[in-house]
Request: fold
Amino acid sequence: MSNLFGKSDLAKPAFNEEISLKVLIDDLNDFLSNFEYSYEVVFVDDGSVDNTFNVLKDAALKNDSFKVIRLRKNFGQSAAILAGIDHAKGDVIVPLDADLQNDPNDIPKLLNLISEGYDLVSGWRKNRQDRAIDRKLPSMLANKLISWVSGIKLHDYGCTLKAYRTEILEGVRLYGELHRFLPVLASWNGAKVTEIEVNHKPRIFGKSKYGLGRTYKVLLDLLVIKFLSDFSTKPIYFFGSFSMGSFLLSTLLVLYSIYLKIFQHIDLDGTPLLIFSAVFVIVGVQLLLMGILCDLVMRTYYESQNKKTYHVKEVVNGSRENVYGDQSRIKF
Reply:
């Protein structure tokens, strides 16, 4: 038992990884035999249709530190990671893919940085062993875009191998492909984030479940993240800005129409300017009303569940429970 962690959790999402898991379990047993912290390993079977669950079940029967969570169907990597987080009991959580491309021997490096005061340590697959065109290049572009939009500068958002202090994940909920944005979500809770180079191995068994097809999903999720980051508690500012822009454009069109009528003697019946002006007024009103409705929804969301719009790191001479009540984190 370490003074730093009561227990470390290794969470491993798996989908149709029967062959890889047999090798991974042996590797984990070797690695954990000399692991300095107390631990539990949470395997998440994401609705596999092969023999994955039986492989995991047999391993859990042989090792009390192994826990298996079997999902009813394939919900995707974000949901599988969230299931692992929800069922983990350790002070630090380290997700790890089941495809053998992550190296368990990198875990102590991540935990060492956690012990230095970081809340989240992200792995960086600097020498990534994947195809360049459909895996590495899209990932590189996505990482740069996410870093630019979020302000959290990381080289490799897509690397599953990360270490999280459990407290920074309290209340975080994952949808779509949001698992790659966990460093961003954690930073909203005041997490101190860094990254470190980790090994990356070529895939030996099976084939990747991801490709170019998920690129647009990442872009859409990025839009959601940006909206939540800037306007989650004040959506009226977002919709109101577009509404004011629409009203301004309508006004300019009206003024231009008056100019054409008075100074250019152009008959406005033959131009669509007034029609466009009316359309922009209608759009502006709709956006303004939508912003008001969203603002009311967000107020209901926070107030009905006694949620807070702030996060407390620590309290001196006071009770943390008195500050937060039963709901101490904003959920996403």
User: Anything to note?
Assistant: The first helix runs from residue 18 to 32. The chain has two domains: 8-230, 235-306. The first strand starts at residue 8 and ends at 14.
